[in-house]
Amino acid sequence: MNSDSKLEDLPVASAQGGLPMPSRLALRGITKQYPGCLANDRVDLDIKPGQIHALLGENGAGKSTLMKIIYGLVKPDRGQLYWRGNPMQIADPSHARSLGIGMVFQHFSLFETLSVTENIALALGTPAREMKTLSRKIADVSRKYGMTLNPERLVHTLSIGERQRVEIVRCLVQDIKLLILDEPTSVLTPQEVDTLFVTLRQLAEEGCSILFISHKLNEVQALCDGATVLRGGRVSGSCNPQAETPSSMARMMVGDDTPIATEYVKVEGGAPFLTIHGLNKSTHDPFGTHLKNLQLQVRSGEIVGVAGVAGNGQEELLAALSGEEPVREGDCIRLGDQAIGHLPPDQRRRLGVAFVPEERLGRGAVPTMSLRDNGLLTGFLQGLVQNGMVQTQKTEAFARSIIDRFKVKAGGTHSQAKSLSGGNLQKFIIGREILQNPKLLIAAHPTWGVDIGAAVAIHEALIQLRDQGAAILVVSEDIDELFQISDRICAICHGELSPLRATAHTTIEQVGRWMAGDFVEDAA
Amino acid sequence: MMDIELVNNVLQAAVRTGTPLLLVALGETVAEKSGVLNLGQEGMLLVGAVVGFITTLTTGSLFLGFMAALVAGVLMSMLFGVLVLKLNANQYATGLALTIFGTGLSAFVGAGYVGQPVTGLEPIAIPWLSDIPVIGNALFNQDLMVYLSFLATAALFWFFKSTRGGLIVKAVGESPDSANAIGLPVLPTRYLAVAFGGAMAGVAGGYLSLAYTPLWAENMSAGRGWIALALVVFASWRIERVMLGAYLFGLASILHLVAQGLGFSFPPNLLAMLPYVATILVLVMLSSNPARNKLYAPVSLGQPFFKST
Amino acid sequence: MIKMEPRQESSPWMPYVSPLLAGVLTLVTGAILFAALGQDPLFALKTVLITPISDAYGVGELFVKAGPILLCALGLSVAYRANVWNIGAEGQLLMGGLAGSALAVQFTDSEGLWLLPAVLLCGMVAGMLWAALAALLKTRFNTNEILTTIMLNYIAFNLLQYCVHGPLKDPHGFNFPESAMFADAARLPLLMEDARVHLGIILALAAAAAVWVLLGKSFLGYQIQVLGRDSRAAKMAGFKEKRLVWLVLLLSGGLAGLAGVGEVAGPIGQLVPQISPGYGYAAIIVAFLGRLHPVGVTLASILMALLFMGGEMVQIELNLPLALVGMFQGMLLFYLLACDVLILYRIRWVSPPATQTL
Lengths: 524, 309, 358
Hints:
Chain B is mainly alpha-helical. Chain B has 15 helices and two strands.
């Protein structure tokens, strides 16, 4: 891979003489420095009219910064952006929109208490008196592109997939020339992904350029006809995905020295350890999900994966399992033959339960506390407290051993949790739980937003814990991850659980149907 | 049996007493809808009161007095606004600081004016309307500021119901990050909302010292700024309910008039507790159901907003 | 152009520099203010800061005032560490003074050694009960403690006025709103002759030491701090939020109650309408200025006591209103909050970005 040097050598000035065939969007030498991190380093990028172009890279490679620069949310320190051949400085998102640039965010920029029309009007600058016209236009556009939407609905009543449609339609009601989508498939079921791709191809045929940001290589290969790969803020290669293999693109993403996902041996597990039986739980949260009659068993020495689109009851299930929201009928959740559903978190921990929550900063770890104090957060049962007093040296040693054993990159035990990168903090949190030798580990979204190196390390740690005989339950939105590490898999939808199957005996398509709520067993 | 005269007087006094609460609470509702919690209402009220009073005393003009109170309120709120919006200081602590500072400042500035007389705002009976039984006298035999408070309530109701500006304030209060991502001006919106809150609190202070009492005394707001904050919660951030709540609190504050009118005598210090007790009771009734507040409260209330550039 | 740039880690030393910086800024502003009022600024500052403690009596008086402020601020520090915004120290203090007085006036002829401990305990319990109301309202009914504690302050003040004008008024007192003088056995013993400094300051320092152990060494203190910094982490770890809220409110209420009963059983010796010049509110500033740490809070309460004395001195010597104290308090807190920005941000002076030329 010598593409690095070649692109570096390309002088910014070469763009001056006019590009040979005017790209819809061209970036030259875009550089953005944040304190302690060079987010974009002399990035070049070209998107042709009607092209579906992928921006590839793992977490932290600089994709988000780059797209925020294109959309006018962030100003580059250096470099030049060309829009349809002309140098351009994009002042803010409304300027970007007036040029015909639209953006679909990974974390939707929607307002839950407002209606679909109000949401779209806010972004477009529609005066209040033209709301009726806008409503009609939304209905027309959504029909044309096969994305049914009721413009009067309040956003908080919509599913995640429908909310994404609002984001997309918001771009389409304008005259759109370039549509940027940030990890759009991470919130969809496999079937919804296919539907989205049909829409995107239709748009491209009409001449709209699309910048598709993703780290999922098979999707990029299925959809895109051009790709730019970022690594550590720099362009590490550009290619035509149709002419590449997923593994060759993966190499461009992670470089030569990082191991890429391996296959793990699937196992059967031993006796059932965690048993969920007839778990019902209604929520007081008006935006929450009720859990309905859940049944699930996790055996010692196996990993069970729960797939699902966000907001289908995962949070409620996890809170019931961790003890943050205990259930009244304790018998619904059993550890071996002991009812634990009514117990608070600390008492469950005493029985050998460990828990890794979804939020790392602000639940899994206290952002402004040191790693030493964050070790104590759940490690207090490991002899770190005597007579009500914190044993400073033992606490220090515990944090030290987490950092050493799990290769956490940090200044030391005194570093604040918030100063760590996502991957390193996650290694610390998972390490903290594993060092307590749990009999049951519950992990929520263990690798979201972490770099591939950390993800591999976390997966290996989970597999090792499994092989020592612990029962492990992993809840994740990343279906590829679940197929990789779980021995058995199921999905959650609208607060209900699908059947549980050995991962080897199911397919991504089937789990995709479960994620959409279709639990009917195949005729076979 | 209460006679009609007493009912008329009590209702009229309830509206009058509720008016400063209404003004403060309207302003704070707007600020809170944009996501900013300003606990400095009491300080802004007092500074508005003293500045308005001194201005009228020296110029003889009630109009100038109210204008000066308004400007004083805005200046005070900007002290808060810069700390909270520019420097991302904690909103609770900064609001408290504003109250402590305003209480001290007003007492210091007003020390030489205690007990001096001004001619306050006089009631103007509106022909026809003030003759409506029961509510006529209460609503339409009042001073100009009461009528302006009606107008302000109606205007804000319309602002949030059917203008783009209202929509932007709500959006910024629900999710400043989303608002920023689609290019809405988060910080300017919040500055304006906080300044509006300051203006309303300043005018309310002016109302206390120029119409309600009318005189200046140290600490004369007597917790009205805090009660107005509770009122916003009571109203679930809805304009029409702010008005209703303000008059109910006004009524609770003048129950001693009713008691006297009915011939009871209570120790005045015990009766003076009533509005505070009522506030606590109202908070209990309104807050016990967390789901309800989750539906209505501005989601980002009290959270700082960090804009990356 | 000034630019604020977030620090990757909070600055380790800014938390200590910031209060000093705020103090200096307040002094500078004060000097300017005095000059604008036509006073000699240096003389005025000397009147505030040095004249009050220029003799032994003044130093003793400093500790008389620092005691109740310290007690209140210690309790508030623990509460604020748990992110419980108790603004009610003033009310809890008043209730402590009121309840202690109610007991003491029953035994104006007693010489029993039991009387003083009983009076102090009575005041503490009253402060705790007053704070318990706020705890009940918060944990059971989910009400905002800022608003409820403020309301309870107003209620306590009116209750005290009612009692001192009514049931607790000295029947032989010519109808003055004052209770009878307490028996000597109900008074806090003096520490020095010729000064009013009494046992209260020793109790306050002992409380500071206890709070230091609680926050710095104990697992309970750790739980309090986790709750305050990140309540979801506390819940995840299984710490009992409601129990901790009760604990910090009872603790701060008890200490404020002790401060209140210490005033009536100390320098005042009877119940009067004004038993506190706003110690409970000043303690809020002291808690922040002292970084919610017992040592810092101790130093800050001495400073605040000096400010109270300086205000009185300025009133006497320069004929300026006493309200100056409140204004300076507010200013100090404002400056502190502004300087605290430097904990999370560093300030850079940058030249405006050059316009790009192609």
